Every structure is written in structure tokens, then in C-alpha cells.
């Protein structure tokens, strides 16, 4: 097993997996507590439009996807706060529209034949130094914001009315959480892809909430679980030559089933 560590691409994959686990643990906790899973899914799938734009105009894919994902997150935040009665339909339009834009622009790009499946389902073994630096910067940004505004995020997550009475802008912090979700989704593209990223964002938190009842503890435990799932999934994919992103998610789901099953028969 330890022989695999001699390869540079395995070392990069492990490092990126640990780094992204920090982001998904923290942001995933905020998403689950605030019941934003569907909104995050809309951001994730619509982000494919950013990939198409980057490819079509010859821009760095991380840059194009990040800008587009943040834009979609901003639009979704605006709609969530203003148009709640038709939110599901509006998110569906953004979801489908973003993917359609990406597919059309990729099809229109002359001579482009790179396998786009890695962006949809992940390819952690192909992670680059630029990807690692991007994930690291996202981690620093997320950790810094959470430390700086933890009390505000806690209040908005569990008691928005109390937060409003305390003079905390619920709209601003709600939008901030969606923007952090967008950055995390983009950072996780190489690890599990846009299609599976929501599972990695939510499953560790679903498990963690069975053992802790504080937001800070949930973030820490979720991150640790995400590290374990990523490493186990990577090892499984290496030895059985299967998709790394799907392997990480399967390991996560198995852990979730075991925990929920234990509590069901307890």
C-alpha cells in the first residue's frame, strides 16, 4: 500500500484530498445546517457553464469556472431572498442553463478533444500544482472568514430572527455562505467533479451531526471524516483502477449507511 506514495501524482492527490476535505467540512456544515443543499446543487451544475466559457475563450479553466460559479451563487442568493415562492423552478432554470451553455461552448470550440468527464466526475490523480494552490487559497479564505465571523454565521444559521434583532445582516451572511459554497465547489472539481461534489459536501456533515451538536465541532468532525473518505476512496481507486471521484463517494455513502444503520437498531 505504501508503495503508491512514491509516485508524485499520488502525493499530489493525497495533498489535494486533505486540503479539499477542510473546505467541504466547514462549508458543508453551513450548507446542511442552513438547508442549502438544493441551492448548492444548482451552483455546482451551473458551474459547467464556466468551464465552457473558459475553454471557448482560451481562459484558465479555474478562472472561468470560479467567476461563473460566483456569479451564479450571487444570482441564486438574490432569487432566494426575493422570489421564494418559485425558487425551485428558478434554480432548475439556472441549473440547466449553466450546463447547456457549457456544453454548447465546448462543442463550438475547434479542435478541443480533452476528456470533460474529469470535470463532471473528478480525476484527483490528475490534479496539478495550480489546483493544489487554488484549494489551499480557498481553505485559507474559508477558515479566515469562519474564524472572523463565526458568531454571526452561528446566529444566522440557527436563529435568523435573533440575528436580525442583534443587527446582523442575514442577507449578507446568507449570500456569503453561498459564495463560499461556490468556491468550494470549484476547488473540488478535480477531486470528485461537479456532479458528485454535493455528496462530498453533505455526507460527512450528515454523519457528524449524529455525534456533535455544536457548529464548530461539526465543522471539525466533518473535515476529518472527509479526509478519511478521500484517502480511502483514493486507495480503492488506485488498486482497483476505477474512478477516484466515484470511489470517494461510495466510501462516504457506505460510512453513512453504517452510522445510520447503527442508530436505527440501537
Describe this structure as you would to a colleague.
The chain is built from 13 helices and no strands. It starts with 7 loop residues before the first helix and ends with a helix. Helix 1 crosses helix 11 (189-208), helix 3 (48-57) runs antiparallel to helix 4 (61-82) and helix 11 (189-208) runs parallel beside helix 13. The model has no long low-confidence stretch (mean pLDDT 88). With 266 residues, it is an all-alpha fold. It has a single domain, classed as Orthogonal Bundle (ABC transporter involved in vitamin B12 uptake, BtuC), CATH 1.10.3470. Helices cover 81% and strands 0% of the residues.
Please tag this protein with its features:
266 residues, mainly alpha, 0% strand, ABC transporter involved in vitamin B12 uptake, BtuC, globular
Structural class: mainly alpha
Question: How does CATH name the architecture?
Answer: Orthogonal Bundle
Q: Helix content range of the residues, please?
A: over 70%
Task: Using the CA coordinates, give the radius of gyration.
Answer: 18 Å
- Distance N to C terminus: 35 Å
CATH superfamily: ABC transporter involved in vitamin B12 uptake, BtuC
CATH topology: ABC transporter involved in vitamin B12 uptake, BtuC
Brief overview:
The chain contains 13 helices and no strands. The protein is an all-alpha fold and 266 residues long. The radius of gyration is 18 Å and the shape is globular.
